[in-house]
Amino acid sequence: MSAPPPAEPPAVPARSGLRASDADRERVAEILREALVEGRLRLSEFESRLEEAQAARTYGELEHLVHDLPVGVEQTATYQELVPQAPAAVSPRIGGRPTSGTGIAILGGFERKGVWTIAQRFTSFALLGGGTIDLREANFEAPETVIRCVALLGGITVIVSPEVDLEVRGIGVMGGFEQGASGIGEAGAPRVVVTGFSFWGGVGVQRKVTKAERRRLKAERKERRQLEKQREDNS
Protein backbone atom coordinates (compact mmCIF):
# COMPACT_ATOMS: atom_id res chain seq x y z
CA MET A 1 0.00 0.00 0.00
CA SER A 2 1.51 3.29 -1.09
CA ALA A 3 2.12 6.06 1.43
CA PRO A 4 -0.22 9.06 1.27
CA PRO A 5 1.18 12.10 -0.58
CA PRO A 6 2.85 14.71 1.63
CA ALA A 7 0.65 17.53 2.77
CA GLU A 8 0.98 20.71 0.76
CA PRO A 9 2.30 23.78 2.60
CA PRO A 10 -0.32 26.38 3.46
CA ALA A 11 -0.91 28.90 0.71
CA VAL A 12 0.68 32.32 1.17
CA PRO A 13 -2.08 34.96 1.17
CA ALA A 14 -2.12 37.45 -1.67
CA ARG A 15 -0.83 40.90 -0.89
CA SER A 16 -4.35 42.35 -0.96
CA GLY A 17 -5.38 40.04 1.87
CA LEU A 18 -2.51 40.85 4.22
CA ARG A 19 -3.29 42.83 7.36
CA ALA A 20 -2.45 46.55 7.34
CA SER A 21 -0.86 48.40 10.26
CA ASP A 22 -1.63 51.83 11.74
CA ALA A 23 1.42 53.19 9.91
CA ASP A 24 0.07 51.82 6.59
CA ARG A 25 -3.27 53.56 7.14
CA GLU A 26 -1.56 56.85 7.97
CA ARG A 27 0.61 56.67 4.84
CA VAL A 28 -2.43 56.20 2.60
CA ALA A 29 -4.18 59.03 4.45
CA GLU A 30 -1.23 61.25 3.50
CA ILE A 31 -1.75 60.40 -0.21
CA LEU A 32 -5.40 61.41 0.14
CA ARG A 33 -4.48 64.71 1.82
CA GLU A 34 -2.10 65.56 -1.02
CA ALA A 35 -4.79 64.68 -3.58
CA LEU A 36 -7.23 67.03 -1.83
CA VAL A 37 -4.71 69.90 -1.83
CA GLU A 38 -3.97 69.33 -5.54
CA GLY A 39 -7.69 69.38 -6.40
CA ARG A 40 -7.85 65.72 -7.45
CA LEU A 41 -10.48 64.94 -4.81
CA ARG A 42 -13.52 66.91 -3.71
CA LEU A 43 -13.83 67.52 0.01
CA SER A 44 -16.70 65.04 0.29
CA GLU A 45 -14.64 62.37 -1.53
CA PHE A 46 -11.65 63.03 0.69
CA GLU A 47 -13.70 62.76 3.88
CA SER A 48 -15.33 59.51 2.69
CA ARG A 49 -12.03 57.90 1.66
CA LEU A 50 -10.25 59.06 4.78
CA GLU A 51 -12.92 57.45 6.93
CA GLU A 52 -12.55 54.21 4.94
CA ALA A 53 -8.74 54.35 5.27
CA GLN A 54 -8.96 54.66 9.03
CA ALA A 55 -11.26 51.62 9.15
CA ALA A 56 -9.34 49.52 6.58
CA ARG A 57 -8.03 46.17 7.79
CA THR A 58 -6.11 44.88 4.72
CA TYR A 59 -3.72 46.15 2.05
CA GLY A 60 -6.38 45.57 -0.60
CA GLU A 61 -8.81 47.92 1.12
CA LEU A 62 -6.14 50.63 1.26
CA GLU A 63 -5.03 50.18 -2.36
CA HIS A 64 -8.62 50.54 -3.54
CA LEU A 65 -8.75 54.03 -2.02
CA VAL A 66 -5.86 55.33 -4.16
CA HIS A 67 -6.20 53.22 -7.31
CA ASP A 68 -7.48 56.15 -9.41
CA LEU A 69 -4.89 58.69 -8.27
CA PRO A 70 -2.10 59.38 -10.79
CA VAL A 71 1.35 57.97 -10.15
CA GLY A 72 3.91 59.60 -12.44
CA VAL A 73 7.57 58.66 -12.74
CA GLU A 74 8.52 61.29 -10.19
CA GLN A 75 5.93 59.90 -7.76
CA THR A 76 6.71 56.21 -8.10
CA ALA A 77 9.09 55.96 -5.15
CA THR A 78 6.68 57.85 -2.90
CA TYR A 79 3.76 55.69 -4.02
CA GLN A 80 5.66 52.48 -3.41
CA GLU A 81 6.59 53.73 0.03
CA LEU A 82 3.07 54.83 0.95
CA VAL A 83 1.11 51.92 -0.53
CA PRO A 84 2.24 48.73 1.23
CA GLN A 85 4.06 46.08 -0.75
CA ALA A 86 4.22 42.34 -0.09
CA PRO A 87 6.54 41.63 2.84
CA ALA A 88 10.08 40.51 2.09
CA ALA A 89 11.93 37.73 3.86
CA VAL A 90 12.29 38.54 7.54
CA SER A 91 15.78 39.33 8.79
CA PRO A 92 17.32 36.61 10.99
CA ARG A 93 17.99 39.37 13.54
CA ILE A 94 14.26 39.62 14.29
CA GLY A 95 12.82 37.44 17.04
CA GLY A 96 13.79 36.30 20.50
CA ARG A 97 13.31 37.23 24.12
CA PRO A 98 14.43 40.81 24.88
CA THR A 99 17.39 41.30 27.19
CA SER A 100 16.80 45.01 27.81
CA GLY A 101 13.85 47.41 27.63
CA THR A 102 15.18 50.45 29.48
CA GLY A 103 18.29 52.58 29.83
CA ILE A 104 18.57 55.17 32.62
CA ALA A 105 21.41 57.61 33.26
CA ILE A 106 21.11 59.99 36.23
CA LEU A 107 24.41 61.70 37.04
CA GLY A 108 25.99 58.77 35.26
CA GLY A 109 25.69 56.72 32.10
CA PHE A 110 24.35 53.57 30.48
CA GLU A 111 25.45 51.60 27.44
CA ARG A 112 23.79 48.91 25.36
CA LYS A 113 26.04 47.51 22.66
CA GLY A 114 27.39 44.30 21.18
CA VAL A 115 25.11 41.27 20.85
CA TRP A 116 21.86 41.86 22.75
CA THR A 117 18.12 41.80 22.06
CA ILE A 118 16.20 45.05 22.30
CA ALA A 119 12.58 45.04 23.46
CA GLN A 120 9.83 46.12 21.07
CA ARG A 121 9.37 49.23 23.24
CA PHE A 122 12.59 50.66 24.70
CA THR A 123 12.61 53.66 27.04
CA SER A 124 15.76 55.69 27.70
CA PHE A 125 16.22 58.60 30.09
CA ALA A 126 19.25 60.80 30.73
CA LEU A 127 19.43 63.50 33.42
CA LEU A 128 22.84 65.13 33.79
CA GLY A 129 24.23 61.98 32.26
CA GLY A 130 24.53 60.12 28.98
CA GLY A 131 23.61 56.88 27.30
CA THR A 132 24.41 54.88 24.16
CA ILE A 133 22.04 52.48 22.38
CA ASP A 134 24.10 50.65 19.76
CA LEU A 135 21.95 48.41 17.53
CA ARG A 136 24.57 47.46 14.95
CA GLU A 137 25.01 43.94 16.32
CA ALA A 138 21.73 43.74 18.21
CA ASN A 139 18.77 41.46 17.66
CA PHE A 140 15.19 42.72 17.73
CA GLU A 141 12.21 41.31 19.60
CA ALA A 142 9.83 42.48 16.87
CA PRO A 143 10.01 43.73 13.25
CA GLU A 144 9.34 47.30 14.46
CA THR A 145 11.07 48.78 17.50
CA VAL A 146 10.11 52.08 19.11
CA ILE A 147 12.81 53.80 21.16
CA ARG A 148 11.64 56.67 23.36
CA CYS A 149 14.46 59.02 24.35
CA VAL A 150 14.16 61.71 27.02
CA ALA A 151 17.29 63.81 27.56
CA LEU A 152 17.28 66.56 30.22
CA LEU A 153 20.62 68.33 30.52
CA GLY A 154 22.10 65.12 29.17
CA GLY A 155 22.63 63.17 25.97
CA ILE A 156 21.55 59.92 24.33
CA THR A 157 23.08 58.40 21.19
CA VAL A 158 21.29 55.81 19.04
CA ILE A 159 23.40 53.95 16.45
CA VAL A 160 21.94 51.70 13.74
CA SER A 161 23.49 49.83 10.84
CA PRO A 162 22.97 51.15 7.28
CA GLU A 163 20.37 48.56 6.22
CA VAL A 164 17.88 49.40 8.99
CA ASP A 165 14.62 51.21 8.16
CA LEU A 166 14.81 54.28 10.40
CA GLU A 167 12.32 57.02 11.29
CA VAL A 168 13.12 59.82 13.76
CA ARG A 169 10.19 61.75 15.22
CA GLY A 170 11.65 63.43 18.32
CA ILE A 171 11.84 67.14 19.08
CA GLY A 172 14.42 69.31 20.81
CA VAL A 173 13.54 72.24 23.11
CA MET A 174 16.60 74.41 23.66
CA GLY A 175 18.46 71.26 22.67
CA GLY A 176 18.96 68.98 19.70
CA PHE A 177 17.25 65.90 18.24
CA GLU A 178 19.03 64.73 15.08
CA GLN A 179 16.73 63.85 12.18
CA GLY A 180 19.19 63.40 9.31
CA ALA A 181 19.67 59.64 9.59
CA SER A 182 16.02 58.83 8.80
CA GLY A 183 15.52 56.75 5.68
CA ILE A 184 14.09 53.60 4.14
CA GLY A 185 16.13 50.48 4.78
CA GLU A 186 16.57 47.21 2.93
CA ALA A 187 13.62 44.90 2.33
CA GLY A 188 12.97 42.70 5.35
CA ALA A 189 15.33 44.65 7.62
CA PRO A 190 14.27 45.74 11.12
CA ARG A 191 12.39 49.02 11.41
CA VAL A 192 13.35 51.45 14.18
CA VAL A 193 11.34 54.48 15.25
CA VAL A 194 13.10 56.98 17.54
CA THR A 195 10.82 59.37 19.38
CA GLY A 196 10.87 61.56 22.49
CA PHE A 197 12.36 64.97 23.30
CA SER A 198 15.41 66.74 24.64
CA PHE A 199 15.55 69.82 26.86
CA TRP A 200 18.90 71.51 27.29
CA GLY A 201 20.33 68.25 26.03
CA GLY A 202 20.69 66.23 22.87
CA VAL A 203 19.67 63.02 21.15
CA GLY A 204 21.95 61.89 18.35
CA VAL A 205 20.85 59.28 15.81
CA GLN A 206 23.53 57.83 13.52
CA ARG A 207 24.04 55.18 10.85
CA LYS A 208 27.37 53.35 11.11
CA VAL A 209 28.82 50.02 10.04
CA THR A 210 30.37 47.75 12.65
CA LYS A 211 34.12 47.73 13.20
CA ALA A 212 34.33 44.28 11.61
CA GLU A 213 32.47 45.49 8.52
CA ARG A 214 34.69 48.59 8.34
CA ARG A 215 37.79 46.37 8.40
CA ARG A 216 36.33 44.16 5.68
CA LEU A 217 35.58 47.14 3.44
CA LYS A 218 39.06 48.54 4.05
CA ALA A 219 40.62 45.20 3.07
CA GLU A 220 38.50 45.08 -0.10
CA ARG A 221 39.61 48.59 -1.10
CA LYS A 222 43.25 47.67 -0.47
CA GLU A 223 42.95 44.51 -2.55
CA ARG A 224 41.25 46.45 -5.36
CA ARG A 225 44.04 49.03 -5.40
CA GLN A 226 46.65 46.26 -5.55
CA LEU A 227 44.90 44.62 -8.50
CA GLU A 228 44.67 47.96 -10.32
CA LYS A 229 48.38 48.56 -9.71
CA GLN A 230 49.26 45.11 -11.05
CA ARG A 231 47.27 45.78 -14.22
CA GLU A 232 49.07 49.08 -14.70
CA ASP A 233 52.46 47.40 -14.20
CA ASN A 234 51.60 44.65 -16.69
CA SER A 235 50.29 47.04 -19.33
From TrEMBL:
Annotated ranges, domain DUF1707: 18-70
List the biased-composition ranges (Basic and acidic residues): 220-235
* Pro residues bias (residue ranges): 1-12
Against InterPro entries, the record matches this protein to: DUF1707_SHOCT-like (IPR012551)
Location of region: Disordered: 1-20, 215-235
PANTHER family, alphabetized: DUF1707 DOMAIN-CONTAINING PROTEIN, MEMBRANE PROTEIN-RELATED
| Name of this protein | DUF1707 and DUF2154 domain-containing protein
**Naturally occurring in which organism (per UniProt):** Kribbella sandramycini
